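Practice set, problem 2.
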Amino acid sequence: MEVVVASSLLIIAIVPILKALTAVHLNSTRMERKTKSLLLAQAKLDDIKARTIYGYSSSYDQTDTVLETSYLCNVDDTGSGSDIRTMTVSVGYDTDGDSGLDAEEVEVTLTTYIANRWTS
């Protein structure tokens, strides 16, 4: 009888602990994806900034570009032809595996202005 009661108490105590561990694991995975998305988005913006020094007139629009395994990137380049352009980089984890970055999959969106450094 004592073993049955002890086992029951142990099971009652373990279930909430396992639920908490599962929630912690899911939050950890989500935060890891956001952090990775932020790093990839910043690297993409740095790459675009470097390329605009000599290729300012080029368009840098991109859709569903694979950055790393299941991470996808969209680049929205507005203001082509003017001296100041707006670059918006959205990066996220492709959870459904359709090779497309849907709105609910976007983890990070970074926006910056890029000026033409070589004006005549």
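Problem 2, part (b): a different protein.
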Amino acid sequence: MVPQTPVMSYASLGGVLSASELLLCSRPYSEQPISRIARWIVRREAVQFALRGEAHFPLFQFEHGMTRVRPAVRRVIDELRPLMSDEELADWFARSNAWLSDCAPADPSVGNAELIEAARAERFVLVG
């Protein structure tokens, strides 16, 4: 069996853009897209993973124009960021979750309240 890459994991969940692609797509909607994307990377404020030396961002997390991370996703990131690497967090959003009836947290059918509760449950499991 071929291992799932992060890009493959997100193919059915809206896809992924590299930081360069995200910059081009969000430029019409933002005056400072480079600063915003850099802040997301440095502060770990968005779901991201490194691939071939560049940050990649799953699209499920963004609101229209890709200039803002959805508030529920931000809450989940804040909940799990201290306990997970960027790659672990990206994997958590892409894999099926028992708390969400085996849907992936990034699945559009998952409600915001359920998403946040699943993150809290995960944090409890990790912290003990």
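Answer key, part (b): The two ends are 33 Å apart (CA to CA). The first helix runs from residue 6 to 10.
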